Amino acid sequence: MPRTWMHAKPMATNPSFMNGVPELLILRTLEASEMYGYELVQTIRAKTNQAISLGEGVVYPALHALEREGMLKSRRKLVNGRTRVYYSVTRKGEKHLAGLVRHWQHITDAIGLAIGGTAHAAITL
Amino acid sequence: MLQSRFNRLSERLLHAGIAPRHVRRYARELGDHFDDLAREEKAGGATRELAETRALSRLGNDDALADAMLSRPELRSLTSRFPWAVFGIGPIVLLALSIVGALYLEFWLLNHTGGVFRYWTGQPPGPVTAKLATRIYTVYNTLIIYGGPLLFAWLFYRIGSRQRMPAKWIMLGVVLVCILGGFQNLIFYDKGYVGGGVLLVQSDLIPPFSHFAEHIARAAMNLAIAGGVWWLSAKRKASHAMVFSRTA
Count of CB contacts below 8 A, A vs B? Predict the structure, then answer.
């Protein structure tokens, strides 16, 4: 069963291509500030110019798994009378993110060269 | 409607072995996410019905929501991954630890409560304080050997039913703890002189089987009580489910 919970154009049907992308996007987005699920999904949609639209409800298993692996930590916070679960990146998560970013930059550089362009793969979420 | 949908999803995930804490949190987060989406759609001019329909569609269908969780085996509970360890070995380990713990505490109390008995009785160590100490520690021992197995039987029932485990596993844990617990014994008596206290821990599952019939009766009593509580609980759950299905 693929773990992909997002649909990118045009690679949505290639789960192996998307392996590691959810983690990368979540960690990168949460690195800037702590967020709750809805906020996180909307931020990723906006920052990727909706090229990657998330299956919104299914972001939570990824968050739970990352928290279980110690990449994220969560805390409950009362906002406007509602209790939200806010997620933020841990030190371990930051290290993991650095590795993921290096890996993806390497891949996008390689693809950029292969399709004839120049290698420019800065991930600027 | 939304609540019954999340209840169905939760049941599906629990039956598949996802840890109850993840399931509860997932359902709560999905509920909050749905509220946010519906609010966003309403703010964009949609009617309430349309906003909720769109919110549900954006949230994902039941299969997608379940698959996302089920594709992560690390979110499964220990109970569902190792039922043989929890319900097969767990009762033995738990009973052994409880007896060792109770024995340790009793030993510590015996060494530190001599002054209390002297204060209560107004007498130095002797037959009077020995009688009082024996009575008090007999009550403690009785609570441990009678109450412990029943408490653990309830614990195994609770763990198993929360995870929607098959009844055979829960039954294994409950039966083991009731039977093994029925055969353990903790005895204290004081002979009335300093250093004359006797603290014994016994199991009649090993020779010489001196009180075998008595322990069989205690195991049967444990089983009868645990079975009775189980039956009552199942009956209550069935009536709740009936009310729920009528209101859903």
Answer: 68
Domain boundaries, given as residue ranges, for chain A:
6-114
Question: Residues near B132 by Cβ (< 8 Å), separated by ≥ 6?
Answer: B117, B120, B121
The domain segmentation of chain B, as residue ranges, is: 2-75, 81-247
Residue B77, Cβ neighbours under 10 Å: how many?
A: 21
- Inter-helix orientation angle A91-114/A21-32, to 10°: 120
This model of the complex carries an ipTM of: 0.77
CATH class of A6-114: mainly alpha
Residues of A in contact with B39 (CB under 8 A): none
B60/A55 Cβ within 8 A:
yes
Chain B partners within 8 Å of A58 (Cβ): 60, 64-65, 67-68
Helix axes A59-68, A21-32, angle to 10 degrees: 80
**Contact predicate B110/B137, CB 8 Å:** yes
Q: What is the pLDDT along chain B (248 residues), one digit of tens a residue?
A: 677 888 999 999 999 999 999 999 999 999 999 999 999 999 999 999 999 999 998 998 889 999 999 999 999 999 999 999 999 999 999 999 999 999 889 888 888 877 777 777 777 777 777 888 888 889 999 999 999 999 999 999 999 999 999 999 999 999 999 999 999 888 888 877 777 788 888 888 888 888 889 999 999 999 999 999 999 988 888 887 776 666 55
Which chain B residues touch A38 with a CB distance below 8 Å?
32-33, 36-37
- Cβ atoms of A86 and A34 within 8 Å: the answer is yes
How far does B28 lie from chain A, in Å, by closest CA? 10
